[in-house]
Specification:
single chain, alpha+beta, 2 domains, three-stranded antiparallel sheet
């Protein structure tokens, strides 16, 4: 019953009109008056932001804020794999032989998430990690490895909530939401970085245009809170024993090593 009511309410509010209103407001001059209350409500650490709060002209500019250069040190171990975002690690597990992952007791098809059986096959038996960004988090996405960008593509149209309620009551949010996918070749094999859009606003902007990536280098940003899914091939990634879910993590922190 709860699930049916939740889905009906989301469908009613997640339309072009409401999305357009939110999009326009966040980019309007009027929205700058919401910046200070937003920062206070979400207890954002203003001391690590690159610019002063007063320098942001709109709420959108504040959402995609940059941090000071030393705010997120990148782990220097040559074989380390780092978190691409400030987030909460919601789940970690294995991709099963049917190319599915189980998150919050719900199954998601990797083939559907990536847009094809061929794309999904290479991750069978590999490791997945779900990283959830709330509206309070730093919204820029960085590369977890040093490697070569093999392919980038976009799937999906609408976006539904990816918070705990969305994962519990939503319908295939992680595999059907609007998403941009980057596949990176690194020393351990191939890695899929799935950037999943959040409710109302399908805004995932790429900022990296070169063929190669350095570990910790910025790739893209979200306009609102959302989710990043990491998919590693079998025997390519060894999870750091101290990493558990749910747990907070920041850009540049070691989450595992190349096998």
């Amino acid at each position: 019953m709860k699930q049916s009511i939740y889905r009906a309410m989301i469908e009613l509010t997640n339309g072009r009109f409401t999305s357009s209103l939110l999009y326009k407001f966040a980019r309007s001059k009027l929205s700058r008056f919401a910046i200070a209350p937003f920062s206070k409500t979400y207890r954002i650490n203003e001391s690590e932001i690159e610019n002063e709060l007063s320098s942001f002209a709109t709420l959108h500019e504040f959402f995609i804020r940059k941090l000071k250069l030393d705010a997120r040190p990148i782990d220097v171990d040559e074989d380390s794999i780092v978190s691409p975002v400030d987030a909460v690690i919601e789940d970690i597990g294995l991709v099963d032989n049917d190319r599915k992952i189980t998150v919050k007791e719900k199954d998601y098809s990797i083939a559907e998430m990536l847009g094809g059986d061929e794309e999904a096959e290479k991750y069978k038996g590999g490791t997945f990690m779900i990283l959830y960004l709330s509206p309070s988090h730093y919204h820029r996405i960085h590369s977890p490895v040093t490697g070569k960008v093999k392919r980038q593509w976009t799937l999906g149209k609408k976006s539904y909530p990816v918070n705990k309620w969305g994962l519990a009551f939503g319908k295939d949010t992680l595999s059907k939401n609007y998403r941009k996918i980057s596949e990176v070749q690194f020393d351990g094999g191939e890695l899929a970085i799935v950037k999943v859009g959040a409710m109302f606003v399908n805004s995932i902007e790429r900022t990296h245009v070169n063929e190669t990536l350095q570990k910790g280098e910025e790739m893209a940003y979200f306009s609102f809170g959302s989710t990043v899914i990491l998919l590693f091939q079998k025997d390519a990634f060894q999870l750091l024993p101290s990493i558990q879910a749910p747990a907070p993590v920041k850009v540049g922190e070691c989450i595992g090593h190349i096998v």
